[in-house]
């Protein structure tokens, strides 16, 4: 907005304040306000149903060969158990 418009709005606000302050305008409440009456009736909802077919995660161990350092700094293969993760489909092994 331009300064001219802001100046006009400021003058209007000052005039309104002066009219209320001098008693030229007087506002009296003539009737009480009230909120509307609202009746709400509702029935309980229902959650959706789902049929989920999921795969089964299988965790176990298997034997494998890994290199393990020997005390004399040579390497030998030693059999150890390491974790294994697999997926079963519909109860199949």
Task: Give a description of the structure.
The chain is α+β, with helices and mostly antiparallel strands. 20% of the residues lie in helices and 30% in strands. It has one helix and two strands, in the order αββ. A two-stranded antiparallel sheet has the order 1-2. A hairpin with a 5-residue loop joins strand 1 (56-69) and strand 2 (75-88). The mean pLDDT is 84.
Keywords:
alpha+beta; 93 residues; elongated; single chain; 30% strand; 2 strands
Annotate the secondary structure layout.
Elements: H1 3-21, E1 56-69, E2 75-88
Antiparallel strand pairs: 1-2
TL;DR of this structure?
The protein is built from one helix and two strands; from the N terminus they run H-E-E. By secondary structure, the chain is an alpha+beta fold.
Radius of gyration: 42 Å
Q: How many distinct beta strands?
A: 2
- Indicate the mean pLDDT: 84
- Helix/strand/pairing category: alpha+beta
State the shape: elongated
Multimeric organization: single chain
The share of residues in helices is 10-25%
Low-confidence stretches: none
Strand content: 25-35%
Topology order in helix (H) and strand (E) letters: HEE
Tell me the major beta sheet. 2 strands, antiparallel
| Strand numbers in spatial order across the main sheet | 1-2
